[in-house]
Amino acid sequence: MRKIDRKRLLREMVFFRRFEDRSFEAYMERKVGGFLHLYSGQEAVATGVLEMVQADRGVGFDYAITGYRDHIHAIKAGAPAREVMAELYGKETGSSRGRGGSMHIFDPSVRFMGGYALVGQPFPLAAGLALACKHQKEGRIAVCFLGDGANNQGTFHETMNMASLWKLPVLFVCENNCYAIGTVIQRSTAVIDQYKRLEAYNIPASQHPGQDIEVVMEAAQSAIAHVRSGAGPYFLEFLTYRYRGHSMSDAGAYRSKEEVAEWMQRDPIQILAKRLIEAGELTEEEFKAMEQAVQSEIDNDIIQFAEESPEPKVADLAKYVLEDNPDPRWIGPLQGQGG
Amino acid sequence: MAELAYWEALRRAHDEELAHDPLVIAMGEDIGVAGGTYKVTLGLYGKYGEERIIDTPISENSYTGIGIGASMAGMRPIIEIMSINFALLALDTLINAAAKIRYMSGGRAQCPIVMRTPGGTAHQLAAQHSARLSRLFMGTPGLRVVTPSTPLDAYGMLKSAVRCNDPVIFLEHESMYNLKGEVPDEETFRPLEGAGVVREGTDITLIGYNYSVHWCLTAADKLAQEGIHAEVIDLRSLKPIDRETIRRSIEKTHRVLVAEEDEAPVGVGSEVIAGIIEDCFFALDAQPVRVHAADVPVPYNYSLEKAAIPDAKDVYQSALKVLGKV
Ligand SMILES: Cc1ncc(C[n+]2csc(CCOP(=O)(O)OP(=O)(O)O)c2C)c(N)n1
After folding, report:
1. What residues does CATH 3.40.50.970 cover in chain B?
2. Quick one: average pLDDT of A148-165?
3. Residue range A312-326: average pLDDT?
4. Active-site residues of B: which are they?
5. How confident is the model at residue A73 (pLDDT cuts 50, 70, 90)?
């Protein structure tokens, strides 16, 4: 495995934080509409897990899929950040050509198979991606990120059963941020430690702190090795926290200031920055310069691309509903007499 | 040319498509070792193995979702749901995912799945086993909905559906699996769009789909004994509906009736007649009529069930009304 550049990881997380902050601002300017769910606070999970998935990318891209809190997963998986922002703006240049929006970022060219607005829906889709991987024998795996709340859907149980039974190469990553919208996990879920639920399905599972990216990477590494070996699924649970409300229409009033402040003490960006500075790999000045460079890249390049991109044409309203040029041998009108 | 039963025609399509493309798989409850509730996959488990003929647990939503996920990664799953009633559990993944993934991804992802499922009333199975639900699927952008009424179409349309890159809802009927019909010996594809004129006539157009086509044909025979020439149209596809074939027929006959086993409100007939009003209002000599199921959950009791569901006699009598003969 190649050596992982910790400074690059730090820069990525700084970029992800700024990307979300900037999309928040764009939302306030009414340039972004719909629901907007931001990932700030949870960066170490997607960054760390996908970094490890990609570390042995001998086979090219693996599949990744998630729910509606999907911008950062998409970018880390390889979707161009410009296109993700353009999608938030609803532009034709967006990842989903303006048809999907914040909750439905897709980039199949890097095997990022989408964000989905229905809680729990990605579980079976991920298992299906894994089924295809197993069938096609190219050494790929599928990675599914979902919140703790999603584990209460029927799809969770049904999918875990089949994924285990059929030994599918799928890594489930539970981002346990303690809340499902405004409901704290203690009020929605009988078993608080999510990884314990997997015992019922004979799927190996473990729980880890999710704010230190190096801890995340270490846990991910052995889980991925298990999945890649053909031994079947693995379930990783990370304890993490989102700084903002569930979405833009939620200020997060159900959480105390103290609780939020306490989690912010364990900020994934600060943890890694501090470690690098203490190790002499990074200076305070370099860190500041990094933050500034990221900010200007997002403001000048990413946002500008989104702002200047064209809107989809109204004449194309029905485009993408069905395939553009279906094969006339099996689609298209029965000519003349049927029967 | 061989006489095949509807189920044999479907089985042959499975067999040919599985042989043609290693990415084709079949999934569903009881379809493997047991060979399928309606024998449609009989013997294929032995031939293609458990990795391609997949027996699933009773988890409709998630196994359908698994099929959809696999299709996004290049597989071509044929998903059998034992009864359309159980497809309700999978509606989320069908309507919210399969139908929308191409659109939500701006055309960058697709779900080439076929969901096959029988609907309809068959011998007092009562409300929770008699749904038709055609309207749910035909009202959903992003799906194709086909309803073959003959073994030939069942065979040729299933083959086309497997090779189609859109999600195809393939509506069968529990009472039709033993229906026999001619199917050519050579490989044949039937289009997924376009209605068929299955009997020509000049006096009235009878429009049906799936099982109700057969009521229309029986009614047409009876009308013929009275010197009335009915034209019968098999819709074949509920999404899209072939309005052109309907228009041409009505411009010839000037009278029309739509027969369906579904309930009327927000149904297939409502949609067909709305199209007729838009396309050929001035060609009509009489008001269009729907023959349809009663707007009730299908009752268990045999006479009540018969009363709830129309048949060939109802089509015949309604046709006479449209013609002003009663
Ligand atoms: C099937 C379904 N039910 C309910 C909702 C509404 N809803 C959206 S997000 C959410 C909470 C999910 O919480 P969790 O899975 O923990 O993810 P998090 O938002 O914490 O990342 C709910 C209930 C939905 N989108 N889909």
Report:
1. 2-183
2. 96
3. 86
4. 60, 129
5. very high
What is the interface pTM, i.e. ipTM, of the complex? 0.82
Residue ranges, comma separated, of all CATH 3.40.50.920 domains in chain B are: 196-322
User: Which pTM value belongs to this model?
Assistant: 0.90
- Secondary structure of B249-283 as H, E, C letters: HHHHHCCEEEEEEEECCCCHHHHHHHHHHHHHHHH
- Give, for ligand 1, the residue of A43, A151, A176, A181 to mutate: max count of ligand atoms closer than 8 Å to Cβ: A181
pLDDT recorded at residue A2: 62
- Mutation probe of ligand 1 site: the residue of A40, A119, A242 with most atoms within 8 A of C-beta: A119
Specify the residue with its C-alpha closest to ligand 1, atom 8: A119
The token pair at A265 is 């003490």
d(CA A46, CA A53): 10
User: How far does the CA of residue A70 sit from the closest CA of chain B (Å)?
Assistant: 13
Contact list in A for residue B71 (CB cut-off 8 A) is: 128
- Decide: helix, strand or coil at residue A90: coil
User: How do residues A26-39 score in pLDDT, each as one tens digit?
Assistant: 999 999 999 999 99
Q: How far is the CA of A329 from the centre of ligand 1 (A)?
A: 43
Cα–Cα dist B46/B323, whole Å: 55
The verdict on a CB contact (< 8 Å) between A128 and B103 is: no
Architecture of domain B2-183: 3-Layer(aba) Sandwich (3.40)
For the domain bounded by A6-311, which CATH number is listed? 3.40.50.970
Distance from CA of A325 to the nearest CA of B (A): 10
